């Protein structure tokens, strides 16, 4: 038969271990749900957008230049930004593709 004070201290020790585990796990869950997961999803959408670029798409570059893709070769795009003015740029320099309603 264990004394009451010993049993109470063992329950308290188990409670403190549980609270310690929760104290360590909750911040990881918080960072995963609010920071890491949304950032990974955004990066995945951007990669899909860059892979889906095709000739004729109206795009906006990271620098804010609006133009139309006239040629694609591997990782290089040729973008027409004005009549008889074309620039070569990296695929990663595209910020977003303008939709038909934006054009």
TrEMBL record:
Lineage: Bacteria, Bacillati, Bacillota, Limnochordia, Limnochordales
Protein name: Preprotein translocase subunit YajC
Compartments (UniProt record): Cell membrane
Annotated transmembrane regions: 15-36
Similarity comment: Belongs to the YajC family.
Principal localisation: membrane
Organism name: Carboxydichorda subterranea
Superkingdom of origin: Bacteria
InterPro entries given in the database record: Preprotein_translocase_YajC
Coiled coil: none
Keyword list, A-Z: Cell membrane, Membrane, Protein transport, Translocation, Transmembrane, Transmembrane helix, Transport
Membrane-topology annotation of the record: Single-pass membrane protein
């Amino acid at each position: 038969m264990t004394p009451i004070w010993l049993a109470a201290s063992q329950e308290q020790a188990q409670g403190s271990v549980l609270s310690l585990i929760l104290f360590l796990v909750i911040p990881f869950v918080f960072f995963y749900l609010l920071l890491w997961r949304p950032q990974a999803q955004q990066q995945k959408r951007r990669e899909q957008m860059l892979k889906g670029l095709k000739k004729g798409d109206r795009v906006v570059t990271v620098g804010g230049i609006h133009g139309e893709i006239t040629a694609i070769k591997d990782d290089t795009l040729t973008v027409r930004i004005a009549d008889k003015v074309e620039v070569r740029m990296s695929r990663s320099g595209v910020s977003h593709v303008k939709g038909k309603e934006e054009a």
